[in-house]
Amino acid sequence: MAKNKNAGHKGSYGYQKLKEREPRACIRFKCALPNTILDILRRRPGWVEVKEEGEWDFYWCDVSWLRENFDHTYMDEHVRICHFRNHYELTRKNYIVKNLKRFRKQIEREAGKLEATKCDFFPKTFEMPSEYHLFVEEFRKNPGITWIMKPVARSQGRGIFLFRKLKDVIDWRKDGVRTDDQKDETQVENYVAQCYIENPYLIGGRKFDLRVYVLVMSYIPLKAWLYRDGFARFSNTRFTLSSIDDHYVHLTNVAVQKTAPDYDPEKGCKWMIQRFRQYLTAKHGAEVVETLFAEMDNIFIKSLQSVQKVIISDKHCFELYGYDILIDQDLKPEFDAGATLTAVETVTLSSDTRGGSSKTGPAGVWTFSFSADRDTRTNLKGKVQREQCISAVKSTQQLLRVSDVTRKQCPGLWIYAQHRSGGPNEQQQALFASSSASCVGDLTLVCTRGWE
Amino acid sequence: MMLEQDTGLSLAIAQIVQRLKGSSLHSQLERQARGSLHKPEIKLESLKEDIKEFLKTSGWEKRLQNAVYSELNVFPSPCHPAAPPEHMKEPLVYMRKAQGSWEKRILKSLNSMCTELSIPLARKRPIGEQKELLNKWNEMGTDEPDLSLFRPVYAPKDFLEVLMNLRNPNYENGDQPSFRNHLGLIQVPLKVKDIPELKDYFSELGLNTGQLGIDDSTQVPPELFENEHVRVGQTVLTEQDSAAAQQYVRQGCPTALRAELWALILNISNQPEDILYYEQLKSNVIQHDLLVDSLIYKDVKLTASNDDYYFVFEDYLYQVLLCFSRDTSVLEHFSYNSATPPKSYIRGKLGMEEYAVFYPPNGVIPFHGFSMYVAPLCFLYHEPSKLYQIFREMYVRFFFRLHSISSHPSGIVSLCLLFETLLQTHLPQLFYHLREIGAQPLRISFKWMVRAFSGYLATDQLLLLWDRILGYNSLEILAVLAAAVFAFRAVNLMEVTSLAAAEAVLADLSTLKVMPLLQIFLFATVT
């Protein structure tokens, strides 16, 4: 279970692409995000990090850099960068829905209705405010079902709410710009309204979703790799439809779960997909599970095909997508709008300890999270450097105590970072948060690799 | 000689008949036989044979066979008609005495906690509380009672101390204590198998026999073993034959068939009366609150809830364990368990036998880690009543031996001795080294064996291990695996210089594959 997600693919791949003229003994990389990815890159033998303005062969960039610089940057043939120019066609919720709908129509025209049903893996979705009337029509056709409203450009469960009555939506529209919107942005934020799965598959009474990673090396021709071990993320509380205001029940993003009052950072709330698969096989038999996974493969393939012609193909680009899949009671998978890995909730490098409540762990066990709000990032860039380090605590007890106090003082998203180092009894934990009051909404956070 | 065998056999038959009489299977058979009288093929002249034939073809004979087989597996064979009942519990006096004094200690600990916290051992819940609990039955994990004052009654390491001090007063071998005969922690002369005997006993695990856990890995084409094995498994299930199933699972259960195969071996069929019985236990839980409930809560919160994979099943664990405490049918297993259920007296009537009750009602006081016996089963069974029955049967067949002092070959004392002997005989250098640095191997492996490796191995590996426990109806494989783990990590262990470092090397077993380890240790090591 100690697989590093990215290393396997990129390692061998990078080595092949050195130019003939200048045989270099190393690969120069740059990484914009201080998290797992940076760590992995640093540890690769023969890969060297370049400073601010140096030349690079490999850049794990953030999207704002891409937006500003991609078009003006010359890249040698061997150079690789981790985003496609218009990646948002697949990652922003409204665009992917638009592309999928269009693709579906195309299939229906070309191959008939039956073939088109293979694309029915996403719930009925409407863009707001542009498709508001279409939405109302659909809403009226199916009274009583629950809908979910999601902001297009945000991740990690922010700004999401559930509703059953049209009145709730109308009220929300009237409220105008909501409190967590950008003060600086003048455009109206886009949302999508989606049918909410009311009968999710539950394990141990809990709702969960599956996170699966797909690496796309090129769109033309379409070359994609599926990582065998994603994970199932569990909600910390038991599922019931009676409390649709309770974020903690319905939203399974680890980031949201972390703010739930009874969240225990030791718990993790995740199963690796292999384990999930074994559980289902024991319960339903191998065939049913094979079908489920084949249908999931279909989701990945169709969604990539739907944007294949739209994405600006560039041989320098590749991208790692994290798909969120929901399973309903009948073991049918549903696609829940993918997100790119610049907004990663949690990346676990290797398994946590076994054996009950033992706090000792093998060398290098990590659990940490990172969050970046794409839209506010540009504004926060200056403030990120002036991070306030609240405190570094040395035990879980202190960790929880501190968080209670500071949580009240500093609103925003709290992330816990834990590093278990080599020795059996050492455990260091650090709690970081940035608390600039002038930042709106949720905040950026840094992950740490422990004590420098 | 023949006479003895005959009397032994007829005694066994008599006892089994005695136990099955009055069981629900008995009344069902009678009902079936009576119902069959209407059938045309039953003739008055050959009534007995015809009914027997009918029972055979309708599958009822098989069910009887399974029940008999189950009884044979669970109850030890009667030694001698004149043997007192204590001998069935435990034939050796010194072991009985040791178990008795250990029990006294546990009870003292429980009573003192009770007095300290002034909590009654049992009380009736007020109606409001009953209603609340009923509403929350499926999500008891969301409850966060204050358990900080409760401590587990004992932990495995306390038990190990007791075992280390076990001595047979009749045994005097005249040797001066030297390193040659006092290497290990266990100092009682019990007979344990050596490797040639183990090879013979576990012959189906040999290198030339296909195994799940080895021959179903992705590199091996399924036509070689896996497909056929699955097919055979399905046939066994169709035939509903317990004995065949037990033989079959020695090579491992396919994931999809495991739940049914285990139920077949344990003879669990989840009849309506079983479901009713479970519901009855549930209402007992609702009506009365026991002190042990808090111990159970604490244990679940400390162990299973913190486990990466079992945390999901937290609610099921409460539903099973709280009911288990109140199940008086579990008291039956004390006839072959060296332990005796603790007695408690109604308030104010201390010493008066008419007012004595067993406490807890099932006679089993949970210790730290107890809930881990149930957690892996949640992967297989999702209906609470079936999960409950499977667990109860697993407990009264196997798990009880892991925390009571007895001379049984599957008892924890024998397992510890087997482990130490295997290690001393086949890795003497490692054993000596660890002993010299103050890291007696048993101190590390004890907790694995007491929990049957639950929580230490990855779940799929654990289930493969428990397949073999069921298949061989013995826990000896736990000791063999423990020794195999040490053998596997021997190189690293030879380099450590402290107990803490040795523990660190063996802290994480989650990546181990049990079947290759067992095979190599038993069949591929040069002895």
Automatic annotation (TrEMBL), chain A:
<protein>
    <recommendedName>
        <fullName>Tubulin--tyrosine ligase-like protein 9</fullName>
    </recommendedName>
</protein>
<keyword id="KW-0436">Ligase</keyword>
<comment type="similarity">
    <text>Belongs to the tubulin--tyrosine ligase family.</text>
</comment>
<dbReference type="GO" id="GO:0005524">
    <property type="term" value="F:ATP binding"/>
</dbReference>
<dbReference type="GO" id="GO:0015631">
    <property type="term" value="F:tubulin binding"/>
</dbReference>
<dbReference type="GO" id="GO:0000226">
    <property type="term" value="P:microtubule cytoskeleton organization"/>
</dbReference>
<dbReference type="GO" id="GO:0070740">
    <property type="term" value="F:tubulin-glutamic acid ligase activity"/>
</dbReference>
<keyword id="KW-0547">Nucleotide-binding</keyword>
<dbReference type="GO" id="GO:0036064">
    <property type="term" value="C:ciliary basal body"/>
</dbReference>
<dbReference type="InterPro" id="IPR004344">
    <property type="entry name" value="TTL/TTLL_fam"/>
</dbReference>
<keyword id="KW-0067">ATP-binding</keyword>
<dbReference type="Pfam" id="PF03133">
    <property type="entry name" value="TTL"/>
</dbReference>
Automatic annotation (TrEMBL), chain B:
<feature type="domain" description="Rab-GAP TBC">
    <location>
        <begin position="252"/>
        <end position="473"/>
    </location>
</feature>
<dbReference type="InterPro" id="IPR000195">
    <property type="entry name" value="Rab-GAP-TBC_dom"/>
</dbReference>
<protein>
    <submittedName>
        <fullName>TBC1 domain family member 19</fullName>
    </submittedName>
</protein>
<dbReference type="InterPro" id="IPR042507">
    <property type="entry name" value="TBC1D19"/>
</dbReference>
<dbReference type="Pfam" id="PF00566">
    <property type="entry name" value="RabGAP-TBC"/>
</dbReference>
<dbReference type="InterPro" id="IPR035969">
    <property type="entry name" value="Rab-GAP_TBC_sf"/>
</dbReference>
